Amino acid sequence: MRRAFLLPLLALAACKPAAPAPQLVVWAWERPEDLRFLPPDAEIAVQTGFVELAGDNFRARGRRYPLRSDRPPSTALVHVQIDDTVPLRWTPELRARVAAAVLHFARVVPAPRVQIDFEVRQSQRQVLIDLLHDVRARLPRGTALSMTAIASWCQEDWLGALPVDEIVPMLFRMGRGGPAIRARLDSGADWAAPACRKAFALSADTPIARAPQARRIYLFAPQSWTPSTFDAVRKRVEQWR
Hints:
Elements: H1 2-14, E1 24-28, E2 33-34, E3 43-54, E4 57-62, E5 67-68, E6 75-82, H2 92-106, E7 113-117, H3 125-138, E8 144-150, E9 166-170, H4 178-186, E10 199-203, E11 216-220, H5 227-238
């Protein structure tokens, strides 16, 4: 009786469907990119603007390099940073002007998702929080708001209240906390912050052994993308399934 009962179970296990393929999103950063080789199911996130805060002012510019593609980007990305050589004066006037600049670049490319890439120190987090709230309030209805995140942020408890649809922990250039984060992911554990469980980012030159499944994966490369670079990253990702 035991043998007759176990055989159907083994047959079912053998037929268990594979995990669905992850959604891959290729980042087109500030350099010339030709992404016409991408497969039809890959998305593109294009950096459309650069904003640098300095003192009580800021500098802003649009993308300087061409992007060649056979499809429209799914994500318009705006990079924001703070010039730490000048003490920042985050006044209401500056806050409003910076939000307007980010929204301007977010609209350069019509896309269903806007992403803000803004790494801040702990003492500067309120600047990031303010900017996200201001951008969220003025985005067209139905436009998703995404943000990149230092991976260690996802082990803290301040992200859950942010007005974003997606947080993208970056699993590369992680600094001193990198080994502990890699060990956590290798063990099968997930982020402490539930808000970080929809997406993550990988770099072509920084492979990882394991990562959570069924999430959008943003792909970074330190140089312009090539078919071989993309294929190598995709094969590593597919090995996790």
